[in-house]
């Protein structure tokens, strides 16, 4: 057997080591790197250093995925706009998934080329996140949107999508982590391409986007992502709860079953994304809107508004109230959001996402939570004037104080534990009016 040091591969590497070491600390030329990315198929690109304050909240996740990260390459790939604008959702979904696949191939091509120069990179993925062992927590490695904003590729519109100054919101975002610095980094552009026309507000079938800029995450998530993650869980539990095929068909019609099969077979299908379809912002996009606004609304927005379709809502949610008032021709179907917190941290993090501000109307109260047992935590939740604040520790004077064993509280939220029994066992205790607990629950229908 050949001795380790005499092995051909080892000898070759030793011969290259000195030469590679001399060039390993040289920063990549930003213009050359930009050209490489564009030649690989990106439509625009920017560079962000790992210690940029704007992405500090992602630092630990990024370094856990690729500890040698020094630079984030952020890039965009344009979509075919008319495929997104059509009310034909199959065409829109083909465009979404095809462009995500394209963005991933662009990233992989860039990394392969860089590797030949001694620079190593990691591709977190431009398509749907896959770290499902962490669900319902953060299931993605990199949040592409804030990275793209930091890199100067646009700003977030009121619909919470990144709008590129030239291509509008018809883009897929990608990020690459590399272990080299670049000679020049890019920075946010000095204006927001969003023209605040509010067409996204008008087009959204569940009222998730408020004209005042408020965003109802729960409403968007429950409908648009019906065949993803939690929606799939809700569907699977519907099957489990059905006594037989007839019972199942009373809850899920043939079209819905076929649609779920389509998502399982040909990538998960988005139900709406009308906010993206209606957006006229961006230099390449805005001409029809500015030329004839009425015609633009008639041709792009109204077909989405007029579409006859099933809208998925959580019972007791703001969306359930909004749909029949705004779109009486659309059919409402009550479903569970499927979101269940696995931890007290997840419960507290999820409160702003699940909060239904219109259900809180008239409620002005301070709640003190004290969690014991496997997770020890204190928190204050303030609901007033249809707004929500979640703070660490006990702040101010509470109108209702709740002390709960953490596991019991999570089981209660998941409807696996009876509240009365938990109160009798002393696992959950409260001081104050029980009506405030009921009012609290109304703000977070599941």
UniProtKB/TrEMBL annotation:
Is Lipoprotein set as a keyword in this record?
A: no
Which domain of life does this protein belong to?
A: Bacteria
Q: Which UniProt keywords apply?
A: Iron, Iron-sulfur, Metal-binding
Q: Which residues form the signal peptide?
A: none
Q: Where is the 4Fe-4S ferredoxin-type domain?
A: 185-214
Decide whether keyword Transmembrane helix is in the record: no
User: Gene3D superfamilies, from UniProt?
Assistant: 3.30.70.3270, SCP2 sterol-binding domain (3.30.1050.10)
- List the protein's name: SCP2 sterol-binding domain-containing protein
Q: Which organism is it from?
A: Floridaenema evergladense BLCC-F167
């Amino acid at each position: 057997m050949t001795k380790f040091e005499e092995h051909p591969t080892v000898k070759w590497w030793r011969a290259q080591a000195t030469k590679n070491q001399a060039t390993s600390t040289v920063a990549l030329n930003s213009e050359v790197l930009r050209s490489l990315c564009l030649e690989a198929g990106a439509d625009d690109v920017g560079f962000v250093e790992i210690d940029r304050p704007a992405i500090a909240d992602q630092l630990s996740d990024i370094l856990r995925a690729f500890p040698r990260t020094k630079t984030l390459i952020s890039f965009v790939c344009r979509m075919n706009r008319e495929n997104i604008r059509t009310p034909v959702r199959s065409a829109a979904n083909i465009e979404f998934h095809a462009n995500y696949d394209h963005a991933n191939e662009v990233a992989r091509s860039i990394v392969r080329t860089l590797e030949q120069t001694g620079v190593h990179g990691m591709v977190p993925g431009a398509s749907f996140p896959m770290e499902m062992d962490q669900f319902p927590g953060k299931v993605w490695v990199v949040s592409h949107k804030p990275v793209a904003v930091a890199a100067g590729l646009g700003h977030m519109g009121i619909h919470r999508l990144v709008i590129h100054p030239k291509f509008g919101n018809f883009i897929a975002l990608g990020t690459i982590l590399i272990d080299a610095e670049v000679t020049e980094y890019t920075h946010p552009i000095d204006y927001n391409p969003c023209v605040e026309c509010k067409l996204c507000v008008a087009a959204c079938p569940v009222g998730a986007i408020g004209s005042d800029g408020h965003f109802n995450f729960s409403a968007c998530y429950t409908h648009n992502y019906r065949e993803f993650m939690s929606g799939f869980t809700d569907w699977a539990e519907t099957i489990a709860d059905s006594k037989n095929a007839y019972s199942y068909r009373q809850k899920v019609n043939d079209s819905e079953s076929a649609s779920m099969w389509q998502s399982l077979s040909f990538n998960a299908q988005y139900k709406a994304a009308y906010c993206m379809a209606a957006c006229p912002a961006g230099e390449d996009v805005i001409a029809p809107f500015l030329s004839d606004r009425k015609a633009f609304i008639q041709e792009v927005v109204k077909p989405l508004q007029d579409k006859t379709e099933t809208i998925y809502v959580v019972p007791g949610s703001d969306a359930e109230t909004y749909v029949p008032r705004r779109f009486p021709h659309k059919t409402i179907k009550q479903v569970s959001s499927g979101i269940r917190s696995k931890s007290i941290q997840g419960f507290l993090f999820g409160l702003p996402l699940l909060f239904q501000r219109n259900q809180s109307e008239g409620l002005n109260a301070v709640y003190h939570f004290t969690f014991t047992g496997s997770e020890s935590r204190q928190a204050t939740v303030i609901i007033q004037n249809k707004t929500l604040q979640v703070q660490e520790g006990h702040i101010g004077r509470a109108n209702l104080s709740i002390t709960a064993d953490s596991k019991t509280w999570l089981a209660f939220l998941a409807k696996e534990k009876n509240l009365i029994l938990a109160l009798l066992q002393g696992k959950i205790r409260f001081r104050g009016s029980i009506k405030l607990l009921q009012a609290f629950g109304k703000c977070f229908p599941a």
